[in-house]
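Run log // design_07
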């Protein structure tokens, strides 16, 4: 079923969009990531302009993350105090990111910058995930189950001032690195249309020392509210949110998130991370190839920009 998207000004298949939303929702439920790092480049591939894909992709992240968050709240696996601190930093970072996005849009460089950011970040994250997952599988085969990491080792984050207690995580650390992690995720969310979970989840585990049982739920808490704020900012200041596109993605995303949350408790984490890493690297390769290949149309008109 072909439909016309009024803001993006393209014609696409509605079932394709619902399917893409479902895939991203599945990723959200399985890994505690908003899924924006996949939905935005996938929208590029079906012809959605990058500026529209970034702003509308953030909208879809809200739905899939909130759906998965509800399941984690029922399991009591969310550190709300940590989530609010991450969100405070994220809101400041998101505001800065929207300002940068609007500046790049006025200069006519937003498409190029967004695609370059995706190539760099997806390449780095995909390679690191694949390397770690393969190493974990080898260790599991050689010496049996992997011992859980000690999370309460004192590092540099424990020496900073403004310490706070996070009872659900069992931590007593400075609020400063928590705010900085949230701010970095906020900037990325605004520039790339991502929830930021693919950076925040490793930071929460290895930098802040949070136990794995509350990481995913807390990540989804921050992602949900931050993505909603980012979407609102893009809609108000750059008019790049396509409501019809967002609605179809949300329908698929909510369904996929519930399925992913259920599967996450049954499947082996190492194998899932390998599959996700390979998917991320494939998407990264396709984006990089598009940047170097000669476009089919050298000149095109987009709203407000001649390029």
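design_07 sequence
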């Amino acid at each position: 079923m072909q439909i016309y998207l009024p803001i993006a000004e393209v014609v696409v298949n509605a079932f394709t969009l619902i399917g893409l939303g479902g895939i991203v929702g599945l990723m959200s439920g399985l890994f505690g990531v908003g899924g924006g790092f996949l939905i935005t480049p996938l929208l590029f591939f079906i012809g959605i302009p990058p500026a529209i894909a970034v702003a509308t992709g953030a909208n879809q992240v809200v739905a899939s993350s909130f759906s998965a968050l509800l399941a984690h709240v029922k399991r009591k696996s969310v550190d709300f105090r940590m989530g609010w601190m991450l969100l405070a930093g994220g809101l400041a970072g998101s505001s800065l990111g929207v300002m940068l996005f609007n500046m790049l849009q006025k200069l006519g460089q937003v498409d190029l910058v967004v695609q370059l950011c995706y190539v760099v970040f997806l390449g780095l994250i995909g390679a690191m995930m694949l390397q770690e997952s393969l190493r974990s599988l080898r260790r599991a085969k050689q010496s049996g189950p992997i011992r859980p990491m000690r999370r309460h080792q004192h590092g540099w984050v424990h020496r900073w001032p403004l310490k706070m207690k996070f009872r659900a995580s069992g931590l007593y650390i400075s609020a400063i690195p928590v705010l900085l992690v949230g701010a970095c995720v906020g900037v990325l969310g605004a520039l790339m249309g991502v929830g930021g979970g693919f950076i925040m989840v490793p930071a929460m585990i290895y930098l802040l020392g949070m136990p794995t049982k509350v990481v995913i739920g807390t990540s989804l808490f921050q992602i949900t509210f931050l993505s909603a704020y980012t979407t609102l900012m893009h809609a108000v200041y750059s008019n790049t949110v396509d409501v019809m596109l967002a609605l179809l993605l949300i329908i698929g995303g909510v369904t996929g998130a519930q399925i992913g949350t259920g599967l996450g408790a049954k499947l082996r984490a190492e194998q899932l991370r390998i599959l996700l890493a390979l998917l991320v690297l494939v998407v990264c390769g396709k984006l990089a190839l598009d940047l170097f290949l000669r476009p089919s149309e050298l000149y095109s008109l987009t709203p407000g920009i001649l390029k």
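The first helix runs from residue 14 to 31.
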